[in-house]
Specification:
homodimer; 189 residues; Tetracycline Repressor, domain 2; 9 helices; elongated; DNA-binding; MT1864/Rv1816-like_C (chains A, B); transcription (chains A, B); transcription cis-regulatory region binding (chains A, B)
Chain lengths: 189, 189
DNA sequence: TGGATTTGCCTAAAGATATTAGGCAACTGC
DNA sequence: GCAGTTGCCTAATATCTTTAGGCAAATCCA
């Protein structure tokens, strides 16, 4: 009986890779056990249940996304920052579709509050420092940006914009242009 | 052995109701069989497999959403139409969270092309007739609106905007204002 | 170094879901 | 009222989740 060296950490990391390969919904405890050539029950020493695996992958994805976002924002401001940050989301979703899907997993409030989701909100606010918005408009704008980024990326991932002209990349650029214009010229109530 | 009168139609309708009650992801063939007090295998005369059930609920939701959208657009134009249409999405998601979740189910291309999703795109284009956009900007704008509506509603459904000021309703109104302004003043490339 | 303890993976088992095959009873049509 | 069709059933298999309890390998420590 050779010990493989299972770890909560390794399992979640392998789960994330599996998600990118076969889709987040196909990530199961059984599939993961197969990857490690180990019996299913063995994973339950490291994971409370399958929910913990899924949540773990979601939290990992949120961290990675936040790290990339922070790197993209460094040294940038204004529209430059806006576009760089937006591209982080889009690129991450394309590179890691399974992880991105995992990041959409609804988390219970405590888990969410302790997650990197908080950093996402802070970074979005940081971008808005390049524009002239004060509360509560800044919050409205945070919500707008979050909606557009998430909405566009998820529609694009589902193939919503493929096979029809113009290219999705073109729309993406023009939408970022329009968001920049909107933020520079945020309408009064 | 009393016959309950199962039908593909009835099953999908019951599945949609079940989705709104317990969540789309909890809608299973087994759960549905329980609802009708019938053995699981009996459903397989009416449904090819569980995928068909889920797809059926998705298509039903898309139809209902398109019908509501059409009703909302009748007799309206410009910002009025924009807001009415947007509210259809948001209200539908709140009234029928399970169905709304179902409407996000990725469909294979042929199914999607035959679905009410096509009407959604047409209606969005109809709204844009109230603004001065020509191709390809109109397509970019269609994609922007789709992203914002879907993005906002799904973030709101996941509780993203609750428990933090200002109220989500306020952000929603201001975002619709900003979209209207953006469309009236769409920036050149 | 060797024994005690902890820890990791295993076997076994039960419960839930999805799906298929084949059977009998209840409707339908005439 | 009979023949044929249809609808729901029993039975069986496969997969996934989860728990309980066991043995062996790693680790600790004298």
């Amino acid at each position: 009986m050779v010990r493989v060296g299972l770890t909560r950490e390794r399992l979640i990391r392998a789960g994330a890779e599996l998600a990118d390969e076969v889709g987040f919904d196909k990530v199961t405890v059984s599939a993961l056990a197969r990857q490690f050539d180990v019996k299913v029950a063995s994973l339950y020493s490291h994971l409370r249940n399958s929910q913990e695996l899924k949540t773990g992958i979601a939290l990992l994805a949120l961290e990675e996304l936040a790290d990339r976002g922070a790197a993209a924002l460094a040294g940038r401001a204004g529209k430059d920052a806006l576009a760089a940050f937006a591209n982080v989301y889009r690129d991450y979703a394309r590179e890691h579709p399974g992880r991105y899907a995992a990041a959409q997993l609804p988390l219970d409030p405590e888990t969410a509050a302790a997650s990197a989701g908080v950093r996402h909100a802070q970074m979005t606010r940081a971008i808005l420092r390049g524009y002239d918005l004060t509360e509560p408009d800044q919050t409205h704008a945070v919500r707008l940006l979050g909606s557009v980024f998430h909405g566009y990326v998820s529609l694009e991932m589902q193939g919503g914009f493929s096979h029809s002209a113009p290219e999705s990349q073109e729309s993406w650029s023009r939408i970022l242009d329009s968001l920049d214009a909107t933020l520079r010229n945020w309408p009064a109530p």
